[in-house]
Design a protein that fits this description.
17% of the residues lie in helices and 46% in strands. It is built from 4 helices and 17 strands. It starts with a helix and ends in a 7-residue tail after the last strand.
């Protein structure tokens, strides 16, 4: 019996003790990493199946604050784009509509669960999409020599296309250019700029740069035509 004890217990005792300590420490580390933990994630709301003829006309769409729970090792590695709320807008019409935001509307990693979604409901307004042309109104400023004045301002193109929710687009009278400083100009000068509309829900056609021609002449001088 003593021989067996020495053979299986005492033999390489220091090595076996170190192995036991290492295994115990590893168990504690794994056990700690598997403890449940929670995290609040600010996530975007993704819209799917938006009817092609509709625009979302709500002034702002809030993000969702989503509380998730899972093993601490998973929660520590969670990134904000790993969790997102998804709304299916199929069948929506040109009107206001309330949608529920529940755990069933949240995409998330398999190892975590959704505890809470804030807000629990989201109300959106929809309108039909409208595109139309509006005039471009250049904004020209500047300091000129005594007797000099602006006699003509031309925009090329003179009109651009805008699009967005119908009731918003219908309220737009014109697009406005970024400010142009024509100080010191005498005769004709051409400036390249961009046009915009103040309503954030109305878009200006992409890739539209505006060439603005400014003509400055002396007071009393013949006007250039």
């Amino acid at each position: 019996m003593i021989g067996l004890f020495k053979r299986y217990v005492v033999h390489n005792f220091s090595f076996k003790l170190m192995s036991l300590i290492f295994a115990t420490a590893l168990w504690f580390m794994i056990s700690r990493d598997d403890r449940p933990a929670e995290l609040a994630v600010r996530a975007p709301i993704v819209f799917q199946n938006v009817p092609s003829e509709l625009e979302i006309s709500s002034e702002s769409v809030p993000e969702a604050l989503i509380r998730v729970r899972g093993p601490e090792r998973v929660i520590r590695q969670l990134r904000s784009n790993d969790v997102q709320a998804v709304l299916d807008l199929a069948g929506s019409k040109a009107e206001a509509r309330t949608f529920d935001l529940t755990a069933q509307q949240v995409d998330h990693p398999r190892d975590v669960s959704v505890v809470q979604v804030v807000p629990s409901q989201l109300r959106l307004s929809f309108d039909t999409r409208l595109s139309r042309e509006v005039e471009v109104h250049p904004r020209v400023t500047g300091n000129f020599a005594s007797g000099d004045q602006i006699v003509r301002i031309d925009a090329d193109p003179p009109r651009i296309t805008i699009s967005g929710p119908r009731h918003h687009v219908e309220k737009i009278d014109a697009a406005i250019t970024d400010p142009i400083d024509a100080s010191g100009t005498l005769g004709s000068a051409v400036f390249t700029t961009n046009a915009y509309v103040a309503d954030p829900l109305v878009q200006v056609a992409q890739g539209t740069s505006i060439r603005v021609t400014v003509v400055v002449e002396k007071l009393g001088a013949p006007t250039t035509h």
